Task: structure prediction
Amino acid sequence: MSLVQSIVIGLLMGTVFGVALEKARVFEPGMIVGQMQLRNFIMLKVFLTAVATGAVVIAALHGFGLVKLAPKATFYAADVVGGLMLGAGIALAGACPGTVLAQVGVGYRDALFTLLGGLAGATAFGYAEPVLKPVLMASGPGKITFMDLTGLSYPVLAVGLAVVLVLILVALEVWRPWRADLGADVDGDFGPAAPAKAARAHLEPAE
Result:
């Protein structure tokens, strides 16, 4: 694949991702914080849908020989520490690396500080990596996949994963319909009475 082809494909994929992100509204801080508070499940539904779709698409592309599977090595300390730091940052900032640019684009001014903080963190990690690497990447099973563990082919595992995720999505939708969650901005909502109080305050005339 040439450089021009890579750029064009990247732009097309980025456009599709951005449109899907905006239509699902999962770039909004209220949606993100609401998911972290387990009060709004649209973000989880969108991500599970993306995982199921991506698994099947990659399986098809791999079957046609258009892509190669390249699993990354597993390092327990790095995965756990990195996951905890990323999750804490998402919960505090109401943003993640995939949504902060969308937030900047629609005019969330605090997203500029999140973006600058992310760039500063990436720069700091670049300098600290020689010191952290021996500690965080000292032990792990290496490149291990479910294909190795089960002996099944990737297409079979991808379709099986997609089926399981679809069942989970159906159950989530029955429990929490997306239309009910879509209008709920739970950013900063720490009690069941908060939405009702906010609605009454909005309807009461100003003195």
